TrEMBL record:
Superkingdom of source: Bacteria
Record has rRNA processing as a keyword: no
Alphabetized PANTHER family for the sequence: FMN_FAD EXPORTER YEEO-RELATED, MULTIDRUG RESISTANCE PROTEIN NORM-RELATED
InterPro entries: MATE_fam, MATE_MdtK
Name of protein: Probable multidrug resistance protein NorM
Similarity comment: family membership: Belongs to the multi antimicrobial extrusion (MATE) (TC 2.A.66.1) family.
Keywords carried by this UniProt record: Membrane, Transmembrane, Transmembrane helix, Transport
Role played: Multidrug efflux pump.
Length: 124
């Protein structure tokens, strides 16, 4: 878990420092697309560490023959992600219209929901 967290933090630092430049070099995006992609990546980069930790939980639950917990966790995460995306991307229910940043926030919140459920079932 510690290594996953460390890798996640290092990846986020790399993304915040060089993410836009790396995308420009690899994908050759135009300035407008690069700006939106960079904004998304800066926030969604947090999901790398969360996802690595979820892989640890995934292995654990599979080893104890409780892989159905993964289905519950990921289903809840997907539902939360879609709902938050709808609200934040399009600015529904009084929230600001955030576009790509809203989608990134939805991803982070969805993955966090999955992580919290995994921790809950792990502790149980």
């Amino acid at each position: 878990m510690s290594i996953s967290l460390l890798i996640g933090v290092l990846c986020e630092i790399l993304i915040l420092g060089y993410g836009t430049k790396i995308m420009e070099i690899i994908y050759g995006l135009n300035d407008e697309t690069l700006s939106v992609a960079g904004e998304y990546l800066n926030v969604a980069g947090l999901t790398i560490g969360i996802n690595l930790i979820l892989f640890n939980f995934s292995s654990y639950f599979k080893n104890i023959n409780k892989s159905h917990i993964l289905v519950y966790s990921l289903t809840a995460a997907s539902i939360v992600n879609v709902c938050v995306d709808y609200v934040l991307v399009y600015g529904k229910f009084g929230f600001p219209e955030l576009g790509a940043i809203g989608a990134a926030i939805g991803s982070v919140i969805g993955y966090t929901m999955s992580l919290l459920l995994s921790i809950f079932f792990f502790r149980k």
